[in-house]
Amino acid sequence: MNRISRRLLPMNRTLNPNQPHAPAHGADAGDPQGGPSFVVAFETELGWTAICGGVCGVAALSFGHQSAEAARRSAAESLRSAGSFRRRAAAESGPTRQKTCRAELMREIPPNAVSPGPHFSIDRLIERLQAFARGVPDDFCDVPVDFGRATDFARRVWTACRTIGYGTVATYAELALRVGVPRAARAVGNALAANRVPLIIPCHRVIARGGQIGRYSAPGGPLMKRRLLELEAVGASSARSKPRDGGGLLGCADGYSNSRG
Questions:
Q1: Residue 104's domain spans which residues?
Q2: Residue pLDDT, tens place only, 141-173
Q3: Residue 59: its H or E element
Q4: Which residue out of 52, 101, 203, 252 is catalytically annotated?
Q5: Are 27 and 129 in contact (CB under 8 A)?
Q6: Which of 46, 202, 224, 255 is a good FRET partner for 62, with 20 to 30 A between their CA atoms?
Q7: Is there a single domain that holds both residue 122 and residue 44?
Q8: What is the pTM of this model?
Q9: What is the pLDDT of residues 55-100, one digit of tens each?
Q10: Do 146 and 62 sit in the same domain of this protein?
Q11: Is 101 an active-site residue?
């Protein structure tokens, strides 16, 4: 399963975990400050997956699709709905705006045009996501995430979510407690619903009270969420029987944030 389809946004850049923080309100695609600049679609055991990103990190991930085109469009739409293309789109109106954004996202590029660069390997991330879909434990804690225009509260929720270890779960109320707002379980759920980088920010590990699965916005909804939790339960059990490098089961360290915003 090595089929990979790559597309390039107007500026081709690599992921750099050491890149200085972007402006407070994020940067648009093609902005020299660093916005999403590529989209790569690839096949996994969980369906076609697409990631969008740039020098500030992964800005969107969409998985569980039947085709590369569907995965790319879903990832691109999550960026547009979050306002990542707001500045460019403001100069256009109506159908023309959508057509231009789509054309930029779907432009073909040679396979080697998206270079992994010296700081973070995009190709390695693809391999890790494919392995994760096969049940190989991975916490993705070292993957830089571009939070874009997200609110401070959403950033706090997403960062706390990354501390939930592989093969474990937390309730919305427990996550609310982690971010210091114990009565805001519903607001935490809304922030997770707006998560543009599932799997890397593992919102599938957050469940409702009483062990109920709760909502999930990826294709397949709660059924996909249950599938991920069952996949991780098997992977975690296997990992405990043999040593492995890195964190994985523990999740990202408390207070850790490799985000760029």
A1: 4-131
A2: 999 999 988 999 999 999 999 999 999 999 999
A3: strand 57-65
A4: 203
A5: no
A6: 255
A7: yes
A8: 0.72
A9: 889 999 999 999 999 999 999 998 887 654 344 333 433 444 344 3
A10: no
A11: no
